[in-house]
Amino acid sequence: MYDTIIIGGGVAGFSAAIYAGRFKMKTLLFTGDFKGGLITWAKEVQNYPGFKSISGMELAKKIEEHAKDYDVEIKSEKVIKVSKNNNGFIVETKDGKFKAYTVLFATGTKVKMLEVKGEGKLKNKGVHYCALCDSFFYKDKTVAVIGGSDSAAIEALILKEVAKKVYIIYRKDKLRAEPITLETIYAAKNIEIIYDTNVLEFVGKDKLEKIKLDKDYKGKKELKLDGVFVSIGHIPMSEIAKELGVGLGDGGYIKIDRFSKTNVDGIFAAGDITDTKFKQAITGVAEAVTAMYLVFQYIQIKKKL
């Protein structure tokens, strides 16, 4: 019987493991298929205290290595179900069942697809979702980023370093990036923004050749491109929590209070999976650490019963 099981191998999950280890709780962490989380896609992180500049991959690795200094069990298995039992919860993977008094969901999010014609056919054949992963394919090529958030702007900044031309195509009339990011975008000579425009279709036989737009751009509703990077948001990985009866907010994010507790006694959540408005690596880490403090108190009471 574990004191706590942490589901998720991103910076929130591993930070929770650090504090679970410090509190001497019997802990199991499931990383699933994507260890490190989406922050590993970030070429440069400049807003994590203590590091003026660090790659997302390096930051995730440092937190993971820190967690491994403690007596915490780590498995790469993917959790497929969580259910209640008389004394806590049963966490299931395809390889077994594991019991725990408490569970922390730090499952994060996955990238959202545009869901237009040709996207599935041309995925990884000119249609991508991570500039850090795939920008090197487009040296001196013409590419576009679809989206207008801070993450979309950062994708464009990564691409401008290798591509000849970068378009940002956004359905609204103003980008929603941080001011410091916008300054760099506006100063870049090879970035052009196309506002108030939607992409209707990705076109190409064996690879992307062009996109179709819902409005004219320079007299045409088509734009020839070598590659496209979709950056329109994320989908919370909350299906298992929902099946357990955990309360979800707008968009399917797990509702938590200021102590990272959910509506289900013994279930906690932290990181991008939660309904908190400001999502950063540091805020997710803080939620995870707070959760483990409350888990520790919860366990002390539980074991006295």
List the helices and strands and how they pair.
Elements: E1 2-7, H1 11-22, E2 27-30, H2 56-67, E3 73-75, E4 79-85, E5 88-93, E6 96-105, E7 109-111, H3 119-122, E8 127-128, H4 131-134, E9 142-146, H5 150-160, E10 165-169, H6 179-187, E11 191-194, E12 199-203, E13 210-217, E14 220-224, E15 227-230, E16 234-236, H7 239-244, E17 267-269, H8 281-304
Model description:
With 305 residues, the chain is α/β, with parallel strands linked by helices. Helix content is 27%, strand content 27%. It folds into 2 domains: 2-110 and 234-304, FAD/NAD(P)-binding domain; 113-230, FAD/NAD(P)-binding domain, CATH 3.50.50.60. It has helices at residues 11-22, 56-67, 119-122, 131-134, 150-160, 179-187, 239-244, 281-304, and strands spanning 2-7, 27-30, 73-75, 79-85, 88-93, 96-105, 109-111, 127-128, 142-146, 165-169, 191-194, 199-203, 210-217, 220-224, 227-230, 234-236, 267-269.
Q: Which features characterize this protein?
A:
elongated; 27% strand; seven-stranded mixed β-sheet; FAD/NAD(P)-binding domain; five-stranded parallel β-sheet; alpha/beta; 305 residues
Say what oligomer this is.
single chain
**Strand runs, count:** 17
- What is the CATH architecture assignment of the largest domain? 3-Layer(bba) Sandwich
Order of helices and strands: EHEHEEEEEHEHEHEHEEEEEEHEH
Helix content: 25-40%
Q: Report low-confidence residues grouped into runs of 5 or more.
A: none
Provide the CATH superfamily of the largest domain: FAD/NAD(P)-binding domain
Mean pLDDT reading? 95
